[in-house]
């Protein structure tokens, strides 16, 4: 089973419980967008699914139990594209992407031509050829974000966890990256869970939206059912208009225009 099941998931950060009894079942090949205000627990949930944060409850990700299975087995099943990547000094972009192959290389073994072919294919698909020989620490924030996605894709996971994957990208690269992930999902039964602040992208790429608030799932369903004007006002305290387009729901923030200031006679 290549999807994700978690039941009664509870997790703490810094001694404080931040996830409360999360139940989530994601079928193989689904794209679920995870939305919610700052601090609602999206990163903690993704890290729990990747086995990086200890959690209570029953969690299965692509047939492995992240907290109990070995690191290599977990890394073959699930890849996380982190919100704040840590980049080792002195490593080129190509070397960083090659790290994604590590869980597939046997202990005491070395890379095969197939590993190198997978890395080169990912570099081509993300149009990273011009950066491949540069130091990863010398990239702009958006360039690095695409390289970190490339490393996660080179890992060839069954479940891909994306934490704000487009936060540093210009609008063209946002579409390129999300379209690429979506086409890989359609081609290969990749299961995607993506934490996203951009509610329009979350709606248009996610077949299903899960809304977290203060560590609890408060809505789970079709984007148009989850992202209503009233719910966005209640959970985010935001004023928005929603527009239904063939590509899906778009969420447009609205400025509350201040009253014009009366001009005062000198
Ligand atoms: N290492 C930590 N130590 C203590 N508290 C933490 C730690 N990491 C996260 N938290 C707290 O846990 C809560 C959930 O954080 P989390 O990063 O999961 O939220 P999020 O929904 O991803 O937020 P954002 O949208 O701002 O990225 C927040 O209150 C945060 O301050």
Automatic annotation (TrEMBL):
It comes from the Bacteria. Residues 4-239 form the ABC transporter domain. SUPFAM superfamilies: P-loop containing nucleoside triphosphate hydrolases. It holds the Pfam family ABC_tran. GO terms for molecular function: ATP binding. It comes from Rhodococcus artemisiae. Keywords: ATP-binding, Nucleotide-binding, Translocase, Transport. InterPro entries: AAA+_ATPase, ABC_transporter-like_ATP-bd, ABC_transporter-like_CS, P-loop_NTPase. This is ABC transporter ATP-binding protein.
């Amino acid at each position: 089973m290549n999807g994700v099941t978690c039941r009664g998931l509870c997790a703490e950060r810094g001694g404080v419980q931040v996830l409360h009894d999360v139940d989530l079942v994601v079928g193989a090949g689904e794209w679920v967008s995870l939305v919610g205000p700052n601090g609602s627990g999206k990163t903690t949930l993704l890290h729990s699914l990747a086995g990086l944060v200890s959690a209570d409850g029953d969690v299965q990700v692509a047939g492995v139990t992240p907290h109990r299975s070995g690191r290599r087995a977990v890394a073959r099943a699930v890849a996380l594209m982190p919100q704040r990547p840590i980049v080792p000094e002195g490593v080129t972009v190509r070397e960083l992407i090659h790290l994604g192959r590590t869980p597939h290389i046997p202990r005491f073994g070395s890379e095969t031509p197939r590993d190198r072919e997978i890395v080169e294919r990912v570099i081509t698909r993300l149009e990273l050829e011009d950066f491949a020989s540069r130091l990863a620490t010398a990239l702009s924030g958006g360039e690095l974000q695409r390289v970190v996605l490339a490393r996660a894709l080179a890992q060839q996971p069954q479940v891909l966890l994306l934490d704000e994957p487009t936060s540093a990208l210009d609008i063209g690269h946002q579409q390129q990256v999300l379209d690429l992930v979506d086409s890989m999902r359609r081609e290969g039964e990749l299961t995607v869970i993506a934490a996203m602040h951009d509610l329009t992208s979350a709606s248009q790429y996610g077949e299903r939206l899960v809304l977290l608030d203060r560590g609890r799932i408060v809505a789970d369903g079709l984007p148009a059912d989850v992202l209503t004007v009233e719910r966005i006002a209640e959970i985010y305290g935001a004023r928005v208009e929603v527009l239904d387009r063939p590509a899906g729901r778009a969420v447009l923030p609205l400025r509350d225009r201040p009253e014009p200031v009366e001009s005062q006679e000198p």
